[in-house]
Amino acid sequence: MSMENDGQLTFEDDPLYIKQNRAHKLLEDGNFSEAIALFENIIRENSNYPGVVDGVKATRFWISRKKAKRFNSPYDKARVLLKEWRDFEKYMVKNNLRHGRSTAAIQKYIFGDIIESFTDAYNEGAAPDTGILIQIGDCFKKLGNYERAIDIYEYARSFNINDPDLMSKLGDCYFSIDETSKAKVLFREAFFIDPGQIELDSIESPFIHMLYKKTIEKAPDPEVSIYWLPVIAEINRAFNVKREPKKGELEKLRLEIEVLEKEYETNRKKRSFIEPKLLNHYFWLIDTLKIIGGSRKEIEQSLQRINEIDTEIFSRYLE
After folding, report:
1. Taking CA 90 as the corner, what is the angle to CA 104 and CA 41, rounded to the nearest 5 degrees?
2. Mean pLDDT per 10-residue run, the chain (319 residues)?
3. pTM higher than 0.90 for the full model?
4. Are 218 and 188 in contact (CB under 8 A)?
């Protein structure tokens, strides 16, 4: 560590810091054996140097897996690497390994390899494979390259516009780049279409996890709670950005409510799942009627029905 003319300490001329930076660059390029040699060299000079022990632990994991492997296809290679990364995340937890500069450098290399393999697999197909596209987007999202992930997710969505999990991934990315209005519209729609298809663990937005904490107070059962999240979001004004209704959407909502009402009355075993979905459909119906200047009587009837289903939710909704 050196001292500048003004007395400020810097790391620029610290030989161990320079070696550590070189080790991180080697990790980014996948040169794990050379990187660990540098880390071990640093440890011999200073066994307490910050981040070096974690660097050794992380690198050893990948050296043990970076043996010559035969893959049946680029897709097979990408899937294997993804599984190994998940195993590495478990290894990090088990060994109290923090996600720092070393693991970030390794992640950059591994996910670069995964993206390249998925891209090769995608290019081999005769028709667009949205599943592969989404996994490529997931990799960019994991690396924090949200703009690139958005481009890929939006393209994938052009083939399946009503995929709720894909919508939630897009909403998550938009939230991460501070485009909160777009994020809220996408999250609101995704949780309306089918909350059960959304991988909550893959969502990074604290906004959604805060809502989920509120939700489990109402519905502690983890199988049911995800269906209550959009209801809790509505009464907390969290999904407060509403899009314009699509052509024919009002009539579609009415028909879906009819079906849900019948299920609510006849299928008592599934009522805990049906109830939040029915409530959320009434919320959407009310919003749609308000936006298009629809029947005030129908809005009042919908409010009355919400009150009959759940008085507490009705009271919170009117607050």
Report:
1. 50
2. 47 79 94 94 91 93 79 89 94 92 95 94 80 95 96 94 96 97 97 96 94 95 95 96 94 98 94 97 97 96 98 95
3. no
4. no
